[in-house]
């Protein structure tokens, strides 16, 4: 596959490059998620048109009940393991709990989307073989910029999430931060995508 712009997580698909097809129940919706919702998700995953479970995870900055979030996350990790799918994680102020739950049920690949953690948290995730994805919010946080700079290209993704910023702009800004060419970033993220979703 020729290197392209891989947008590993977006709420505004453009139909160009690679945009991941996911299905999941967001932690914000945990209090309303019942067994019927999980059954619907399982059927969608079983249909074969989904590449990853997500976004799922924990958000302890929100008022959504934490116990409900944990139950929902555990259930979606179980589905990811059952269907052999990677997960795209939403993790806000819940890094340690997220890592503990991943130790209980580890999918075949883990992508922290919109990573905004510290360099130390990044190192912990990277040591476990997880991938980190960075986007528009990265540039507002010096510690997250530092985490980005420490992330190996072999574990890096980029994204637009819900931003209107074009993915090419994200790549350009990250390339400048890392003193790389945009084509080098495209090659790395395309290879990472192939490793997980084509050869994995």
Characterization of this structure:
The chain has 200 residues and is α/β, with parallel strands linked by helices. It has one domain (6-197): TIM Barrel (Alpha-Beta Barrel), CATH 3.20.20. It has seven helices and eight strands, in the order βββαβαβαβαβαβαα. The protein has a six-stranded parallel beta sheet. A two-stranded parallel ribbon has the order 1-2. Helix 1 (35-46) links the parallel strand 3 and strand 4. Helix 1 (35-46) packs parallel to helix 2, helix 4 (119-127) packs parallel to helix 5 and helix 6 crosses helix 7. The longest helix is centred in the middle third of the chain and has 18 residues, at 66-83. The radius of gyration is 16 Å and the shape is globular. 40% of the residues are buried.
Brief characterization of the structure:
The protein has 200 residues and is an alpha/beta fold.
Topology overview:
Elements (H helix, E strand, L loop, with lengths): L5 E2 L10 E2 L2 E2 L11 H12 L5 E8 L6 H18 L3 E6 L2 H10 L5 E3 L6 H9 L3 E4 L7 H9 L5 E3 L8 H12 L3 H16 L3
Parallel strand pairs: 1-2, 3-4, 4-5, 5-6, 6-7, 7-8
Helix pairs in contact: 1-2, 4-5, 6-7
Characteristics of this structure?
alpha/beta; six-stranded parallel beta sheet; 7 helices
Q: Which CATH-level-2 architecture?
A: Alpha-Beta Barrel
Strand content: 15-25%
Question: What share of residues is helical?
Answer: 40-55%
What is CATH's topology name? Answer: TIM Barrel
Q: Any idea of the CATH class?
A: Alpha Beta
As residue ranges, the low-confidence spans are: none
Query: What is the CATH homologous superfamily assignment?
Result: Metal-dependent hydrolases
- Please give the alpha-carbon distance between the first and last residues: 15 Å
Counted by DSSP, the helix tally is 7
Number of strands: 8
Largest sheet, in brief, is: 6 strands, parallel
What is the count of distinct domains?
1
Helix vs. strand class: alpha/beta
- CA gyration radius, whole angstroms: 16 Å
User: Which strand order does the major sheet show?
Assistant: 3-4-5-6-7-8
Mean pLDDT, as a whole number? 95
Coarse shape: globular
């Amino acid at each position: 596959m020729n290197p392209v712009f891989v947008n590993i997580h977006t709420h505004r698909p453009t139909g160009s490059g690679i945009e991941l097809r996911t299905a999941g129940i967001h932690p914000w919706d945990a209090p309303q998620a019942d067994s019927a919702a999980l059954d619907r998700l399982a059927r969608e995953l079983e249909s074969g048109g989904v590449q990853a479970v997500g976004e799922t995870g924990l958000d302890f900055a929100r008022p959504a009940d934490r116990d409900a979030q944990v139950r929902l996350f555990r259930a979606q990790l179980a589905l990811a393991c059952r269907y052999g799918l990677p997960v795209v994680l939403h993790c806000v102020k819940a890094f340690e709990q997220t890592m503990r739950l991943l130790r209980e049920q580890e999918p075949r690949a883990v992508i922290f989307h919109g990573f905004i953690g510290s360099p130390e948290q990044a190192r912990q995730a990277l040591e476990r073989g997880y991938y980190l994805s960075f986007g528009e919010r990265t540039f507002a946080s010096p510690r997250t910029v530092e985490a980005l700079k420490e992330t190996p290209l072999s574990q890096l993704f980029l994204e637009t999430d819900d931003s209107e910023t074009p993915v090419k702009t994200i790549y350009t800004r990250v390339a400048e931060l890392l003193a790389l060419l945009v084509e080098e970033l495209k090659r790395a993220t395309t290879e990472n995508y192939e490793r997980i979703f084509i050869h994995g």
